[in-house]
């Protein structure tokens, strides 16, 4: 059965200065997406492949990014952590939390802004992971 996500999904940033995470909610997030990744496909078709067909070898899966949209709140200290990490090129840890499950991403931040005359200020963020995302059970 489908379930509404409002109030049950969070994107959080690790604000700790040590190895024990201190998760802080990133305010204003309106959508979040993570594709999970599929194995890389390498074409292995050769002269022995049956006519009209192809052969494929599967390699390692890429580490797809976590992407999310947020209402931009200029000066918000938590959102500014993302801009600081982007401009400094530092590694940041962010997690997508849905009720009792979370997926944690550690990598570089890519961030942009969108402003329109009649619209809200918004920001598009991607966390480009340096290794596979980690899925785990958490307390709600």
Written as H for each helix and E for each strand, in order along the chain, the element string is EEEEEEHEEEE
Radius of gyration: 19 Å
Overall pLDDT score: 93
Low-confidence stretches: none
Distance between the termini: 20 Å
Tally the beta strands: 10
Largest sheet: 8 strands, antiparallel
What does this structure look like?
With 140 residues, the protein is mainly beta. 9% of the residues lie in helices and 44% in strands. It is built from 1 helix and 10 strands; from the N terminus they run ββββββαββββ. It has one helix spanning 77-88; strands at residues 9-14, 23-25, 29-34, 41-43, 56-58, 66-71, 91-98, 101-114, 122-129, 134-137. The strands form 2 sheets. Strands 1, 2, 3, 6, 7, 8, 9 and 10 form an 8-stranded antiparallel sheet that branches. The two termini are 20 Å apart. 18% of the residues are buried. The mean pLDDT is 93.
């Amino acid at each position: 059965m489908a379930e509404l996500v409002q109030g049950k999904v969070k994107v959080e940033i690790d604000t700790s200065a040590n190895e024990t995470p201190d998760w802080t909610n990133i305010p204003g997030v309106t959508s979040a997406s993570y594709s999970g990744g599929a194995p890389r496909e390498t074409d292995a078709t050769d002269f022995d492949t049956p006519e009209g067909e192809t052969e494929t070898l599967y390699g390692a899966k890429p580490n797809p990014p976590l992407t999310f949209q947020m209402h931009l709140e200029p000066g918000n200290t938590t959102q500014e952590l993302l801009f600081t990490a982007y401009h400094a090129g530092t590694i940041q840890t962010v997690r997508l939390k849905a009720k009792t499950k979370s997926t944690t991403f550690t990598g570089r931040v890519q961030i942009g802004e969108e402003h329109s005359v009649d619209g809200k200020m918004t920001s598009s963020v991607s966390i480009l992971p340096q290794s596979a995302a980690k899925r785990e059970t958490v307390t709600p």
